[in-house]
Amino acid sequence: MAELRASYTPAVDIQETPDALWIQADLPGVSPQSLELSIENQVLWIVGRADRDVPAGYRPIHDDAPSGDFVRSFILGSAVDAKGIRTSFSDGILTLRIPKLPPSSTAKSRP
Amino acid sequence: MRPGLWTVQQQFLETGAVDTKSFGSTALYEGDEGFLLFVDLPGVLPVGVTIDAEPDRLILTARRLARPSPDGEAFFRREECFSGYWRKEIRFRAAIDPESATARLTDGVLQVFAKKAVRRRPVRVPVQGSGAG
After folding, report:
1. ipTM of the complex, rounded to two decimals
2. Which of A53, A83, A89, B69 is most buried, by the most CB atoms less than 10 A from its CB?
3. Could you tell me the pTM of the whole model?
């Protein structure tokens, strides 16, 4: 993952409830097929690519919209259940629900 | 801080700096036939978009409702995504035919196409009348 080269970083909202963390990422122009989620060494990676279907012969005259490869990552830590992550993707928004582990199972990780 | 959340708040850290606001950003392309506009509108439904086409510009508005709260009591740990009312005006360097404009919203991207107006060329008017010519 360290070799990834992203052209932009998508914006996210993170909300926390008593039971879970919710990540909502703005990913306009990203198809589910070009989106990859992975967890490596307790780091959550959101990787993908936003493409535009521009007809041949059309030339750009203005462009401030992010496109191309993107990446964003988060350290999950040991207080969440990485195996219980649920995802949904619609209208250009990726939603992740990351359940927390019960307090008793995370007590040992507290300093 | 509520008890029981300390560990999560300390450990759920971001691994990189972030500086991006993509909502409403645009990409405009020009072809021989017309203009093609892309607008990033994630989380917006078609009913939340208006497009007014005029010969020299498009006036776009969109409304993105606040994200629905997850189940139970929630608070924001990070809030980067736009919500609210958005407006933008796109001016063209060549006249368009407003009647030709079409739009669709897919995967959070609004795509608008407008044909260029047919250029009216000067016409020489023949003069009729009597007399030698």
Report:
1. 0.86
2. A89
3. 0.82
